[in-house]
Amino acid sequence: MTILQTSAAALLALSLGAPAFAAEPAVPRLDVRPTCHPLDPSDKSIQIDTERCLKTEQDARAELVRQWADFPSADRVLCIQTATLTSMASYVDLITCLEMRRDVAKLPADRGLRSAPAALPTPRSAD
Predict the structure, then answer these.
(1) Per residue, what are the HEC states of the chain?
(2) Measuring CA to CA, which of 15, 27, 52, 77 is 20 to 30 A from 119?
């Protein structure tokens, strides 16, 4: 098998293994029921209003339907992955991720900040 054939086979395998909703042009259908129910029903210290939670998730999905095409495809893919990382998928998490990415992209590149997180190397001067 040539390198080209091997690469093509690997690409095909990766694309078949990717989640079906990653390339979905429409808002994905998420199972938000686990998000709106207590993890431990016997634990009465945390009360969840299931109906209100489901309504909030439905409202977030409706807003996503209205705005979906306005978000870049790469952001949609990333945020879908983020919102479905656990067994508690959420439209609220999905729209929050998309809105944050949109808002960060609108920030000016250089806002005059001269500090960096301790884990990152400091930028070198252009002098």
Answers:
(1) CCHHHHHHHHHHHHHHHCCHHHHCCCCCCCCCHHHHCCCCCCCCCCCCCHHHHHHHHHHHHHHHHHHHHHCCHHHHHHHHHHHCCCCCCCHHHHHHHHHHHHHHHHCCCCCCCCCCCCCCCCCCCCC
(2) 77
Nearest Cα to 6, choosing from 14, 17, 18?
14
Q: Which amino acid is at 114?
A: R
- Is the full-model pTM beyond 0.85? no
For the segment 11-34, what is each residue's pLDDT rounded down to a tens digit?
A: 444 344 444 444 457 999 999 999
The residues near 92 (Cβ < 8 Å, ≥ 6 apart) are: 56, 57, 60
